[in-house]
Amino acid sequence: MMIITEIENDDVLKIYHNLGSIISVLSQVSNSMELTRFDITNKILPAIRYKCCRILYNKNGHPVSFILWKKIESNDINSLKNACYKWHPILGWNEGDDYLITHFFSDKRYILESIKTLKKECFNKGDIVCYFDLKHKLIHKVV
User: Could you tell me if residue 40 is inside a domain?
Assistant: First the structure.
């Protein structure tokens, strides 16, 4: 059990709201996907706590997509490797100024709009964003 002492009550409510929103998006995207306690504890909650996630909502206030990322040093292969295999920044990878997108899920109807919005709202001009394509090839893009 992990005890968090530095979070205010309002922040706890926001953390659980964001967690619920992410679970809602995942349930819309796939009925067969299994979300485990490991996923929540080691992937989703650290991203929420370290402000490395963004959730988008439709005009009715329903969550439709989300993105999780990690800050890395893209020129350092060990930073990239550790970020891929270690779930929490405290466990060790060199946090740099570049981004590694680890998760992106979206309702089919909102994919293009979500990508445009996330690119505009999450990253600044000149930021380096890395992600793995469907063939597991690492892609580097400059925003």
Answer: yes
pLDDT in tens, 88-121: 555 555 566 788 888 899 999 999 999 888 888 8
| Contacting residues for 49 by C-beta, under 8 A, at least 6 apart | 4, 15
Flag whether pLDDT at 137 surpasses 60. yes
Residues 9 and 98: their CA atoms lie apart, in Å, by 31
Alpha helix locations (H) across 50-125?
77-85, 111-122
Query: What's the pTM value of the predicted model, to 2 decimals?
Result: 0.80
24 in a domain, yes or no? yes
The rounded distance, in Å, linking the Cα atoms of 12 and 106 is: 25
DSSP annotation of 125: T
Domain residue limits at 76:
9-142
Query: What's the CATH number where 123 sits?
Result: 3.40.630
Report the domain count for the chain: 1
Q: What angle do CA 115, 64, 46 make, to 5 degrees?
A: 85
User: How many helices and strands, by DSSP H and E, does the chain display?
Assistant: 5, 5
Cα-Cα-Cα-Cα dihedral sign, residues 131, 134, 138, 142? negative
